[in-house]
Amino acid sequence: MKPSELPRRAGVGFKPEHFAAIDAASQPIGFFEVHAENYMGAGGPPHAQLGRLRRDYALSIHGVGLSVGSMQPLDTDHLARLKIVCDRYEPESFSEHLAWSSHDTTFLNDLLPLPYTEATLAQVCAHVDQVQTLLGRRMLLENPATYLLFEESTIEETDFLAEVARRTGCGLLLDVNNVFVAATNHRMDPGAYLKRFPVQWVREIHLSGHSETIDDSGAPLLIDSHDTPVKDPVWELYEELIGRTGPIASLVEWDNDVPEWPVLRAEAEAADAILKRAARRAA
């Protein structure tokens, strides 16, 4: 099985509107990440741009449509298209979400949570095994941003992720913003969650912004919106985490209200500075 090994640097999610600025000069970026579903066509400008970037930078492919957490079988047509993309670009990393987004022939524009039970654990493991076998490469599984909890859950989320990794050999993608969003929404301590997280399996970290609103009871509600700079509490959690783990490939996501390239690059440079400080301490 092909390993997932990105450089232990900061990367960004690639946006086509940034291509000209990126291509004009070498960028201080460790890697780029793209959503697999945006490259499932046969050709055109998306592939021309990504092919150009791939020659100079490491690549992470991030899926959003496999519905790994569904209790239904995986969509084999979607999986076949995913394999074509991965075979074409040979990314250093492929990742997906611990979530579900489809039911029968209905596809939902969201990443929905699942209860953490023995039954869902077995199903997720079977799906991860299926994906890794077909792709011939290790995948990473990302912790979700959640807005509700299931009464029927019998396994802690961190234990659930650790067991999936142990049974399947997959890696984990630790989204620090998702941790902060979910912990705030559920009135939990994000720092305590991170201390329980099975970091020995983590091969990539995500950072992003979130928005703040109020729920029906008047309590704060955070939304994983990817439309702002990384917030200070998330930076603080990230720096504390990297101080314990050492450098790990770290991606800045910004998918909505996308800024000009220098703004996004500056976010990546801020993450890179934290990684470099951790590397110097380790040395």
Automatic annotation (TrEMBL):
Q: SUPFAM superfamilies per the record?
A: Xylose isomerase-like
Tell me which domain of life the UniProt entry assigns to the organism this sequence originates from: Bacteria
Q: Which InterPro entries match?
A: MbnB/TglH/ChrH (IPR007801), Xyl_isomerase-like_sf (IPR036237)
Q: Which family does it belong to?
A: Belongs to the UPF0276 family.
Q: What is this protein called?
A: UPF0276 protein GR212_14685
Q: Which organism is it from?
A: Rhizobium lusitanum
